[in-house]
Structure formats: C-alpha cells, structure tokens
Amino acid sequence: MSWQAYTDNLLGTGKVDKAAIYSRAGDSLWASSGGLNLAATEIGKIARGFDDPSGLQSTGMQVQGQKYMLLRADDRSIYARHDAEGMVCVRTKQTVILAHYPPTVQAGEATKIVEQLADYLIGVQY
To answer: SMART domains of this UniProt entry (predicted)?
Structure first.
C-alpha cells in the first residue's frame, strides 16, 4: 500500500479530517490528506518532542500556525488540543503519523485509529 493510501484511509474513518506521514526525523513529507502540511520548524519540533517534550510543554505545539496545548508526550505518542479539536501524533520505527480531529469527534476515537495504524506499521517494520 502506498503512504498516501494510509492517510486517505485515516480520513475515510470519519474520525480524522487531516492526516500526514513524515519521516521519523521529520525532514520529509511522505503523504498528506486533507491539506495537512506543516512548516519545517513545526514538524521538526514535534519530531524532537518524542525524545524531549520540554519544548512542547513550555510553548505548546504549533500545527499550520495554530497553537495546541500539550496533553501527553512520550517516546511514542503526542496528544494536543485546541478548544474542541486536537492532534494525535504517533512515532513508529520509520515514520511520524500526524492526524487532526474536528470538534465533532471524541479524542479517544481519533486516538484509537491513529494508534492502530502505528501498531500495524511497527508490526511490518515501519
């Protein structure tokens, strides 16, 4: 399956309205659906946040110029929220998956499908 198909499938669930897959280092965009394209500084800060979340904790997470409040950050997952919408970011062996969910979706519903995709990619060595 192409990388684009993975982001399209996330949107197809109805739980995510924008998704992107970047390289683990955050230096290249592999696929994007729904218009989710981050500035190099934004994805770079997120990619570094998996190893050291202090920067995200102190200033929040920027996505397409919008500031999100950090809810959780560890070496696998970063969750952030802005009002009733949010971001789910999950790191696999080779990728960083980013997904935006709209106000009409519960955070747990979006998180579940993004984490499942990450589990699958990790299982196939990505």
So the answer is: PROF (SM00392)
